[in-house]
Specification:
The model has no long low-confidence stretch (mean pLDDT about 90). A six-stranded mixed beta sheet has the order 2-1-3-4-5-6, with helices on one face. With about 110 residues, it is of the alpha+beta class. It contains three helices and six strands; from the N terminus they run E-H-H-E-E-E-H-E-E.
C-alpha cells in the first residue's frame, strides 16, 4: 500500500490543445523548476490536466487548497506563484481569474 504524504498545495495545469499552444507545457516545466529551486517539490503535487474549460484564457493553473484560478500564465508568473502563493499564501492578483474564497477577478 502506498503512503500518502502531506501536501502544502496541489497545482493543476491545463495542457490541453489550446493551453498547450499558448505555452502550457513551458509553464508546467518552469513551475517544476521553481518548486525544486525552493525545495518545495516534495510538498507540492503538480497535475497536468486535459482541460479546465476556460479555453482562450490560458494557459491555466489552479492552486489548491486555496482554490485560486490563474490565467494567461507564462514562465515568469509560474515562478511568482511559487514565491507568493505557495510559499507565502499571497495571491498573485494580476493573474487571478477566480478565487474560490469568494473573489472574482475584477471584483476586488
Amino acid at each position: 500500500m502506498s503512503h500518502l504524504k502531506k501536501l502544502d498545495a496541489h497545482v493543476l495545469i491545463c495542457t490541453h490543445q489550446t493551453c498547450r499552444k499558448q505555452g502550457g507545457r513551458r509553464v508546467a516545466k518552469e513551475l517544476k523548476r521553481a518548486l525544486k529551486a525552493n525545495d518545495l517539490r516534495k510538498s507540492v503535487m503538480i497535475t497536468e490536466v486535459d482541460c479546465l474549460d476556460q479555453c482562450g484564457r490560458g494557459p491555466l493553473m489552479v492552486v489548491y487548497p486555496d482554490g485560486v484560478w490563474y490565467g494567461r500564465m507564462d514562465e515568469e508568473s509560474a515562478r511568482e506563484i511559487v514565491e507568493q502563493q505557495i510559499k507565502k499564501g499571497r495571491t498573485v492578483e494580476q493573474k487571478v481569474l477566480y478565487d474560490m474564497r469568494g473573489k472574482e477577478a475584477g471584483s476586488r
